[in-house]
Automatic annotation (TrEMBL):
Keyword Transmembrane part of the UniProt annotation: yes
The keyword Transmembrane is annotated on this UniProt entry: yes
GO MF entries: acyltransferase activity, transferring groups other than amino-acyl groups
Protein name: Fucose 4-O-acetylase
Residue intervals of the Acyltransferase domain: 17-342
Keywords, alphabetical: Membrane, Transmembrane, Transmembrane helix
InterPro entries: Acyl_transf_3_dom, Nod_factor_acetyltransferase
Bilayer-spanning residue ranges: 21-40, 46-66, 78-99, 126-143, 150-168, 180-199, 219-241, 261-285, 297-320, 326-346
Source organism per UniProt: Clostridium gasigenes
Amino acid sequence: MVTNVEDKVDSFNNRYKWIDVLKFLGIFAIYLGHCGEVSGKLYKFVFLYHVPLFFFVSGFFALNNMNMNIREYILKKFRQLIIPYMCFALINIVSFAILENYDISDILPIIKSYALGIRNTLRMGSLWFIPCIFIVNIIYFIINKIFKNKYIICIIILMLFIATQTLLSNNPLEEPSWFMNIDSAMYYILYYALGNILFEKIKSFRFKELTLRRKGVFVVITIVMFIFTAVTYFMGISAITDFLCNKYNFFNYLYSKNIKVIHPIYLVMSALIIIYINILVAYGLRNIRLFQTIGSNTLVLCGIENVIKIYINTTIIVLGSYINQINPLTCVIYTGISIWVANYIVENIIKRYFVVLTGK
């Protein structure tokens, strides 16, 4: 799953190569998902895991700054995330104002929506992730500062997650409504915490060092998870629960009576299984430099996604042609082109002249 010591860290940029490739897979899934339902089965499939994947990966190094006090940490994350968020918001507002010939009365509500940062209300939807991960970072840091016992920390995280599904008037997965996505952060912090907890196990895993029996167990588990992922892709997220409900009356009774608790847990388990498969794929592709580079730029790629797609589409129209996404394959190709163009701009323009957008 991860590399040997000499492969584990890329000597060129001192980063874990497979993590950057994992982030590449995540940003590709996000760009692809935003193509809409024309992307076919891929549309619903990628939405099962691409956001959880990024929270999971973000948790890998969550406790690297525990020597800071709370104020220092908040200021650092504000510089890394919120300042780029505000810049991305401005870029998107200007681009759409020109594209759609906005009046000032059109712009003011959009500015307000970015100030609030609530998911599903932003004109450029992918930006919601940035204030949300900011809140997740702060909450998790404060919890770990106050409580030193890992079991207490786990209980608090679980309570936050359960509260979003049972106590809040609006489920943040369906109707997020809190400032800066605090309600969504309460849900997604579970993935963040799991990433933090599991990272040491993941990065130290050595398949060659396992006993023959453990190798067999690992292979069987991986095959089962791959089958689950394939079934979920081809038949949908509810295929397995529907089968169990139809096959076993007890399960049907248990599931229907406790759906508010069981279904969210099932969604989390499903996302983690697909993330596991993505980790294996990322490890296999870890030496592809382009994927590493794209993965290292995901913050900016998230922020400029809509703008890049606007200018690609507009440029093609100016040249006398048009974009015709007629099937899932065309969506995959369009996604690849969009990410390549966006990454080229990041590497050759943004990193040279607009470093503030990178959070540095």
